[in-house]
Design brief:
Its EC number is 2.7.11.10. It contains eight helices and 13 strands. By secondary structure, the chain is of the alpha+beta class. β5 and β6 form a beta hairpin.
């Protein structure tokens, strides 16, 4: 099977290396990957928001193809999103399908332990922590959780859930996951060993315009929803991405700081109602600002 559509790393050629039939794949050369971008000093607090929006646009295209072919990637993370610098801007492509799996449908139970600690959903984390394959997971449960973790790190520069001994502490990570409130989008362990949960981004992180942060916060709340009845399907995730990508940006001059800031118009959203309600309530009580719309 060849994965050649846009937003997936292209295989250019393959070569049989020895008499046993071992095959080497020759792939297109990338300029970087999202993990490397996040290590740059200027991205310490997260990627620029226009870059993040472009990343989401390209990522959902690649994932939509995988979904249509019933393929679970199972190791989504910043390092597995390649960057190609082109005249019309960055192109992002998924790579590393070594742990991928073809499924019969989106509800097929999977048991293999695949992926990277820190990006694993609750059941894979539990299986890894307790050296078992007892707890099943589905394609969407695996990949959408990893997408949420990946995009959260892209938006803030840090992982959302951090056990006391780091992400390699799978027992500690599993304990965090099963104790996490349903609406918490991040958390850490305090010096005295308590879990500290937040419904908003970590303080000093996600330095985006307020209106865009509202939308992102709702996006992550849905991606990290632990309630089975309201958990995202891939179709709803893709629809939310399309709404997010399509938000109209209006340059707004904020008189309190004497600077322009992009205002993201959420008046037509259908899947981000909580973000819209929070924004309307806040705008009724905050600083006056003048704005100009650039058509």
């Amino acid at each position: 099977m060849e994965l050649m559509p846009p937003r997936l790393a292209e295989i250019l050629h393959s070569v049989i290396m020895n008499t046993r039939g071992s095959r080497a794949l020759i792939m297109e050369l990338a300029d970087s990957n999202v993990g490397d971008e996040l290590h740059k000093l200027e991205n310490f607090f997260g990627l620029p928001y226009l870059m993040l929006i472009r990343l989401i646009s390209h990522l959902v295209q690649g994932l939509s193809y995988l979904n249509s072919e019933k393929i679970a990637h199972r190791d989504l993370k910043p390092e597995n999103i390649l960057i190609f610098n082109q005249p019309d801007g960055m192109k992002f492509k998924l790579c590393d399908f070594g742990g991928s799996r073809i499924v019969t449908d989106n509800c097929q139970p999977l048991h293999s332990i695949c992926g990277t600690p820190g990006y694993l959903n609750v059941n894979i984390t539990a299986n890894l922590a307790h050296n078992t394959k007892a707890l099943p997971y589905t394609k969407d449960e695996c990949d959408l959780w990893s997408v949420g973790i990946t995009l959260f790190k892209c938006a803030t520069g840090v992982l959302p859930f951090i056990p006391a001994n780091g992400c390699a502490d799978t027992v500690g990570m599993h304990s965090m996951m099963i104790n996490r409130p349903a609406d918490a989008i991040c958390g850490h362990v305090s010096e005295d060993g308590r879990f500290v949960w937040e419904k908003d981004f970590p303080k000093g992180r996600c330095l985006y315009p307020r209106t865009f942060r509202r939308v992102l916060r709702e996006f992550f709340r849905r991606l990290f929803d632990k309630r089975e009845a309201t958990r995202l399907t891939f179709e709803t995730f893709a629809a939310m991405c399309e709404e997010l990508i399509g938000l109209r940006r209006i340059p707004v001059f904020k008189t309190n700081i004497m600077l322009f800031e992009d205002y993201f118009d959420t008046s037509h959203v259908k899947l981000f109602e909580n973000a819209l309600a929070a924004l309307v309530a806040e705008l009724c009580a905050v600083d006056f600002c003048c704005h100009w719309t650039i058509s």
